[in-house]
Amino acid sequence: MTPMRYTLLLVLVSALSCVSAANPLTDLLERVDEGASAKFRVELQAGDRDFFELDQCGSKVVVRGNTYCNIGAGLNWYLRHYCGIHLSWNNMKADLPDTLPPVRHKERHETDMRLRYYLNYCTFSYSMAFWDWDRWQQEIDWMVLHGINLPLAAVGHECVWRNMLLRMGKTEEEVGRFIPGPAFFAWWEMGNLEGWGGPLPLSWYAQQEKLQKQILRRMRAFGMKPVLPGYGGMIQSADVTDGSRMVWNGFVRPGTLMPDDPRFDQYARLFYEETERLYGKADYYSTDPFHEAGAIPAGFDFGVAGKAILATMRKYGNEDAVWVLQGWGGNPRQDMLNVLPKGSVLVLDLNSETVPQFGPVNAAYNRREGYGIHDWCFCELENFGGNVGLHGRFDMLVDHYTKAREHFSANMKGIGLTMEGIENNQMMYELMTDLPWIGGEFRKVEWVSNYVNARYGLVGNKDVDRLTVNHHNPVNSLYMVWNMLANSIYNSPEDNWQQGTHESIFCARPSKNAFQVSSWSQMKNYYDPNYVFIAQEVMEALRPVLGGNDNFDYDYVDITRQANAEKGRRLYEYMMVDFRAHDSVSFEKHKSDFLDLILAQDSLLSTRSEFTLDRWLTMARDKGQTVAEKEQYEWNARVQITTWGNRECSDGGGLHDYAHKEWAGLLRDFYHQRWKKYLDMLSDVLAGKCEETRIDWYDLDEKWVRRNH
Description:
By secondary structure, this protein is an alpha/beta fold. Helix content is 46%, strand content 9%. The strands form four sheets. An eight-stranded parallel beta sheet has the order 6-5-16-15-14-13-12-7. A four-stranded mixed beta sheet has the order 1-3-2-4. It has a two-stranded antiparallel sheet with strand order 8-11.
């Protein structure tokens, strides 16, 4: 071979080595930015440990890993740390530079947290109840970029139940009394209620079956292992033969079949047959038959029940199936875990950052030996009810994760994000998904600085570096804001077990001693609101510099919303002092300011679709094919965020306002009207026009719920 031909051959081989084979990440990159896939080389390589690696090949950035999801995590790492691009729920698009910043030194990250779980049954109702394929496609991309490889896949689960019940001879009417409406699937799937919000029109089943198949195809294309719902013994309450009826916050619960009941095997067989026919087999099935069970029948044997559930799962579902269980409220019962073989169970320690069950870190349920021989995942719950508000447990999350690794590394197989609602507090989820990939000691200030750099595109942005605001560099100002927030409102302390965000007083049912909004929030005043006010002032000052950056615009609105909520709480306290002092002049001034602030909050939030009622209701109505269907789905959407249930469940069961939202439209037309009615009554009391009277809040709320009918 001549020297010239040999040289040409080397050039050709080098060029070919920089060409990426077809893979699902190509389309993901194109969805992020048209033409982006041509700037990367993706390499799928075998490896004993989960890893991703960043490298350079000519002008292309190389991202390699042993799975597509690990490569996705590597892509996200590169975009954040090299490009200053943060893809988040509020924006999954980006403008990549024509020439990507080079990786000058190969960078490798490994983890033994091989399972990265995602979603809670509640998420499917509080956030995803009315999603279409476009929104699901975006979410799956988000999962890949965060290394998620074990997502719960519960869409279309109702189709399995409808088919199996019809095969058993049930009528459509009987099916409709059992399967609830789309905003309440989660609590039916967990055995808490039945029928509420239904019956579903047949068109719903057809579209959701199609949607689930699209979701599963995409998840499996990325190499994910979707977790499908399993069968745990649930039966319609109408078919309970012993006459027992259990309730959950006022709702009649479905029944639970005893393992020796011949119907148990029949139900399980039909359930897994229909699951496989529609969606294929799964390696993981999720079911929690004793979720928030309250009273359990006397003499109930959890060990026998657990064996039966696993046996039918492996007999009719998949012979190698792993049963996924939630570590929540004393479940899974130890008597059941004791008799299940190693490798058959994966426990999700659902609220590890707050009240872990795995011990010895403040173990809420005294599992000092963890989950024994069984595998488990350290999970972050963070959000309850999809509520809106800045919140986090920064130090607790890192500390509990570190201690879990130290004490239970043998059976701790991964992490999980198990929030009840998403599209909020992005920083806390970035932190959680970063932890498995960070080697060595965690450095909080450094991590927060890197988050800020990516969030606002500050990496190598010389134009921003040259700008000043009141003689201050905006980069330093942003570092100050986020470190301040990370050490205050995003840093709930160890002794505070409150459920999620410090709730806005605007959303509370009015009274003279209003504090928390939902019945179970357990709120405490754990941070100084002045830090929020300072953060808001800095963000306001930075708007001329960073306005137009979508992440900044979103955070500006969110932080300003939080500051307004803090001001509202202060105004409320002033009003109550005025009322008790019979100071009508001061009361009227503070009342006017309070009501005006609710409307100002509404106007602020209307500038971002993520914070609007209209977005939620539009998604609901768009799922309907007829006027009647659109109205049914809108009713579901309205009920969930307000009364939640009927009067008995809403008031007696305490479910009202559990899923409250600080949203434009809801503030103006719902919360403002409640507070105005109550405060006007107090004004009349101070003026001697009437006695203080009790207001029927459920009746008032129900009128708003039915506004579309």
